[in-house]
Specification:
Elements: H1 4-14, H2 25-32, E1 37-41, E2 55-56, H3 59-68, E3 72-79, E4 82-91, E5 94-102, E6 107-109, E7 113-120, E8 123-133, E9 137-142, E10 147-152, E11 158-163, E12 195-201, H4 203-208, H5 213-232, E13 238-245, H6 258-272, E14 278-282, E15 289-292, E16 309-313, H7 323-336, H8 357-364, H9 408-420, E17 444-445, E18 455-458, E19 482-487, E20 494-499, E21 508-516, E22 519-526, E23 536-539, E24 547-554, H10 558-561, E25 565-571, H11 581-590, E26 617-619, E27 625-629, E28 651-653, E29 660-661, E30 675-677, E31 682-685, E32 699-701, E33 706-710, E34 722-724, E35 729-731, H12 739-744, E36 747-749, H13 762-768, E37 819-822, E38 828-829, E39 846-850, E40 856-860, E41 865-873, E42 877-881, E43 886-897, E44 900-903, E45 906-910, E46 918-922, E47 925-928, E48 933-937, E49 942-946, E50 951-954, E51 957-961, E52 970-974, E53 977-980, E54 983-987, E55 992-996, E56 1001-1004, E57 1009-1012
């Protein structure tokens, strides 16, 4: 796995989905050996939710999926008139040596149940599992719209459709109060291991499955095939190595709830010496929910807390895969692997929550929320129907858990990191699934050459082919055979040969057949004609274009050496040279092939033109080059334009070599190119714009080079979902176009570019726009530009009166000339721009004048805020401030009123710049309503001066705080009529709090209070 540690660090940093780059022989082998997809119908009849028409399980489908067990299948079914295509892949849920033990003492082989998993073809966000045995079949399908099951009746071929509930209550009783573990990259990597499970089914589940051991095992298999499928989406493979079924009274009879069930289960695991596995108990007892033995105990011995154990109670019985079973088991197993609830304050890299479902539930029931440190009860984070597995959203009205969302990207990445960086051995090897070509239907095509150019294969975990004619040249039966195919060339002759590889088999047998997998005819067999005891079979007189099926097996004693490697080739002198040969020879010579670390096949190009056998070359089933994987292979020089002749090339992986200079400008001439990895080289300069013309480019790694200049905006044109540009020398702002990558959810890396804003923080760019230049003024948001939606605002820009920080000095509208904004409307709203002489609604720096010739009412409407530096209201004006309306005066902070002010909202005046003046001068009429407030702070000499003709009526609150320390005279200077039935508070005033001039009247009713401090 290429750069696994770097990759894991990136996931931990950016919390995005894992993207791995590979260049190993394992990857090469997987690409070459892509098995055939077998199309089959589940049933010839349509299925209906009310089952009013009986559908019958296709015998052909049963024979293919259970009998021949193809690696890949396209299973179609028609549901309510709509045809679904389910893309399935066979996988092994049980280890090869797995046994089933019964409480009555029997130890049995597990009944054969073939398990498949996959997706609905038309829905990427979907989840499909299929479990099929000799007399049982259960299909579970979940997508964004629906969840349903199809199962076969016992002892008949009739199918039944069951609608699975979208929402079920799934309670978790695990204490979520432990700190999430930090995993460090220097710890051992257990990526190749499985999470190994010991699964126990209690007596109640045995009874609820008809007191049938096979039924109970099928029920358990259905559950864990779904759980394993979910975990597999996050590269955490699960395998069950031991099953225990209580077919008599169990040790959990006295349990009164899930906690006491857990205690009994842990004690039992200690008594049987559980080691190296996670124990899981399934129960249909009527206790709601599940519980784990603490959080993160999967590496600990069972004798410590937290430990490797969990259980689920209240499960749906019979063969139904109700989502409760799947979600609850996945949830509790997640706790064992160190996952916290999504409502805990431990996520997003900043100790916040992902959702608040559990916090809302706790608050509604009078309990302390787990996420109390980050939970805002007035604004909860709720995902609707798209809650994830570690959430409580299925228990909150209006919310739900959708299995298609799985753990979600953030929790899923943490799950992968916890597993892959485990400090313990997490289980057995996962490579228990037979090879791709284990069965005849999945035979791997051999590419013919002019001579023997062997490829290496293995038969690890291969099984004996069923219903196949035996080997005609040996008497023994072999159980680990594998299959190949070859097409007869124009000469009608074909040689097939096995070859010795280091440490591999020394004695092989080849059997060739004509016909199809269901009707094979033996046409040749060889045991020892090849080198040593290897096989060499020459076929002559065959029909050109005929497909020969080839069965290969070791002849070594199976008990001691039944799994291993071998080489095989098929050839004839009449085979023409490969059409991609000239381009690859040019590539070899232009990149100093003589100095490559591994040049197998390439170095002999003069005598071996079968390029599909060359190291690092992957070919399609039609024999054309589809990939070049030569990472870390000491290539240098230049990539020649001759490679544009590789018209079927989809993947170019040249990671960690020694290329330098500028990037080739002809990669867009490879029409099918999807994947390019030129990371960790020494390229420099700008990225050529021609890359923007690559129509199918989806993955581009250019990390750890010396590219410079601005980030290329044209890279958003191809459908790129993975783009690594980190560790370079790019400069400037992040292009606006890169917002497309945010919307795509692309894996984009820009960090460690020191000349980019924040060093290239893509996460902040997507969240806040940091580092972008959305107003195209040449200044980057956050690091330079304080207002990136206004190209008139940037460092050093002239400050204008517009309510903005134009010059980005953290002050708004400072040091600018006075601007007068005059009302030119009639009756109307303050917040309508056309009512004002400047054409804009008054800003905090405006001196507002409202002095119409006629009587008009100007309204500050409910929920809005009006701002100005000062206001002068003429005699014909009524200023109406509605409920929840606000008038804020600052800067000069002066209000002069000769008209009428009706305040049902709030007025706030602050005038720190006017050190000797009066904040509020009234010669008109003012009403402060009972629910309203007038606040004056930091006035000059006087807060309120009520002139002789002025009238102020306060039924609400007037608060006066501070006047100028030197120039201060009065809090209230009243020469007119001042009535108070509300509250007046005057605090910290220099001079007199209240001055009542001759002829002035201050009337304070019984309900009124005046508080002088």
């Amino acid at each position: 796995m290429k750069r696994l540690l770097t990759l894991c660090s990136f996931i931990l940093l950016c919390l995005i989905q894992v993207t791995a780059q590979t260049s190993s022989a394992t990857e090469l082998k997987k690409k070459v050996e892509q098995p055939k997809v077998h199309a089959i119908e589940l049933t010839a009849q349509p299925l209906f939710f009310d089952n009013h028409q009986t559908a019958v399980f296709s015998a052909e489908c049963q024979q293919l999926l259970f009998g021949q067990k193809p690696r890949l299948a396209d299973l179609s079914l028609t549901l309510e008139g709509q045809t679904f295509h389910l893309l399935l892949e066979r996988f092994e849920l049980f280890s090869r040596d797995a046994k089933m033990e019964l409480a009555t003492g029997e130890i049995l082989d597990l009944p054969t149940i073939v398990t498949y998993r996959g997706k609905v073809k038309s829905a990427e966000d979907s989840h499909v599992t299929l479990c099929i045995g000799e007399d049982q079949m259960t299909l579970f399908v979940s997508d964004e719209d629906q969840q349903f099951e199809v199962h076969k009746d016992k002892n008949s071929m009739a199918l039944r459709l069951v609608v699975a509930p979208q929402k079920v209550r799934a309670l978790c009783h695990t204490d979520d109060d432990e700190e999430m573990r930090e995993h460090h990259q220097e710890q051992r990597n257990s990526y190749a291991d499985c999470l190994e499970l010991y699964v126990e089914c209690d007596y109640s589940s045995y009874l609820d499955n008809g007191s049938s051991t096979p039924n109970t095992q099928s029920w358990m298999t259905n559950i864990f095939s779904n759980v394993a499928t979910i975990y597999n989406d996050y590269n955490v493979p699960i395998i069950v190595s031991q099953v225990f079924i209580w077919n008599t009274n169990d040790v959990y009879t006295a349990a009164t709830g899930v906690s006491s069930m857990r205690t009994a289960f842990v004690n039992r695991l200690i008594s049987i010496g559980l080691s190296g596995k996670v124990g899981y108990l399934l129960s249909t007892k009527d206790f709601a929910g599940g519980i784990s033995y603490g959080i993160g105990g999967f590496c600990n011995p069972i004798t410590t807390y937290p430990g490797p154990a969990a259980l689920t109670c209240g499960m749906a019985g019979s063969i139904m895969n109700y989502p409760y079973n799947i979600q609850n088991v996945s949830h509790e197993l997640g706790h064992v692997l160190g996952l916290r609830h999504t409502h805990a304050c431990v996520w997003n890299g900043v100790n916040t929550q992902i959702d608040d479902c559990g916090n809302v539930i706790a608050a509604n029931t009078g309990k302390t929320p787990e996420g109390s440190n980050c939970f805002n009860a007035s604004s909860p984070i709720l995902p609707g129907a798209n809650g994830t597995i570690m959430s409580f959203c299925s228990n909150l009205a209006g919310q739900g858990i959708n299995l298609t969302t799985g753990f979600g990207p953030i929790v899923g990445n943490q799950l992968f990191l916890n597993f892959v960086n485990a400090t313990c051995f997490t289980g057995t090897s996962c490579s228990t699934l037979g090879p791709n070509n284990d069965e005849c239907v999945d035979a791997i095509p051999l590419t013919l050459g002019q001579g023997c150019n062997p490829r290496t294969f293995d038969n690890d975990y291969g099984t004996q082919s069923a219903n196949t004619p035996g080997f005609s040249c040996v008497s023994q039966a072999y159980s680990t055979d594998v299959w190949f195919s070859a097409i007869v060339p124009s000469s009608g002759s074909l040689t097939i040969e096995t070859i010795q590889v280091s440490g591999g088999f020394t004695d092989m047998v080849i059997q060739a057949y004509a016909g199809s997998c269901g009707a094979l005819t033996a046409i040749g067999c060889d045991d020892n004609t090849g080198a040593g005891n290897h096989a060499l079979l020459l076929l002559t007189g065959r029909t050109p274009g005929e497909t020969i099926l080839i069965r290969v097996t070791p002849k070594d004693v199976p008990a001691t050496n039944d799994y291993g490697e071998f080489g095989i080739c098929a050839y004839d002198a009449s085979v023409p040279c490969h059409p991609d040969y000239p381009a690859l020879v040019s590539f070899y010579n232009s990149t100093n092939g003589a100095s490559w670390t591994n040049k197998t096949g390439w170095v002999n190009y003069a005598s071996n033109c079968n390029v599909c056998t060359w190291f690092g070359v992957v070919c399609t089933s039609a024999g054309r080059v589809s990939a070049i994987n030569l990472g870390s292979n000491n290539l240098n020089g230049t990539i020649p334009s001759a490679i544009t002749a590789l018209t079927q090339l989809t993947r170019l992986n040249l990671y960690s070599n020694n290329f330098s200079g500028t990037l080739p400008n002809f990669l867009d001439d490879l029409p099918l190119l999807e994947y390019v990895d030129l990371g960790n080289n020494n390229y420099s300069g700008a990225i050529p714009s021609t890359l923007g013309d690559a129509p199918n480019l989806r993955t581009l790694y250019l990390d750890n080079n010396n590219f410079s200049g601005t980030l290329p905006a044209f890279l958003v044109i191809p459908p790129i979902s993975v783009l690594w540009l980190n560790d370079n020398n790019f400069s400037g702002c992040i292009p606006n176009a890169y917002n497309d990558f945010c919307l795509r959810g692309a894996s984009l890396r820009l960090e460690l570019n020191p000349l980019l804003p924040g060093g290239g923080n893509y996460t902040d760019y997507c969240l806040t726009g940091y580092g972008g230049d959305f107003d195209n003024d040449g200044f980057c948001a956050g690091s330079q530009d304080c207002l990136d939606d206004d190209n008139m605002s940037y460092p050093g820009a002239p400050e204008v009166c517009d309510g903005k920080d134009n010059d980005c000095d953290s002050s708004v509208d400072e040091n600018i000339p006075d601007v007068t904004n005059t009302w030119i409307g009639t009756n109307g709203s303050w917040n309508v721009a056309t009512n004002w002489s400047t054409g804009i609604v008054p800003q905090p720096c405006h001196n507002v004048v409202i002095n119409p010739a006629l009587a008009y009412t100007i309204t500050i409407t409910n929920g809005t805020t009006a701002r100005a530096s000062s206001i002068n209201l003429g005699a014909n004006v009524t200023l109406l401030i509605q409920n929840n309306g606000n008038l804020n005066l600052q800067d000069k902070g002066v209000l002069i009123n000769a008209g009428d002010i009706l305040c049902y909202g709030n007025i706030s005046i602050a005038n720190p710049l006017n050190t000797s003046g009066t904040a509020f001068t009234n010669s008109g009429s003012v009403l402060i309503n009972s629910s309203s407030m007038l606040t004056i702070t930091n006035s000059g000499s006087t807060a309120i001066r009520n002139q002789a003709v002025g009238e102020i009526t306060n039924n609400g609150i007037i608060s006066i705080l501070n006047n100028h320390a030197t120039n201060g005279l009065y809090g209230i200077d009243n020469l007119g009529m001042f009535s108070n039935s509300g509250q007046i508070t005057i605090e910290n005033i220099q001079g007199k709090d209240i001055r009542l001039a001759s002829g002035g009247l201050l009337e304070n009713s019984d309900a009124g209070t005046i508080d002088l401090k």
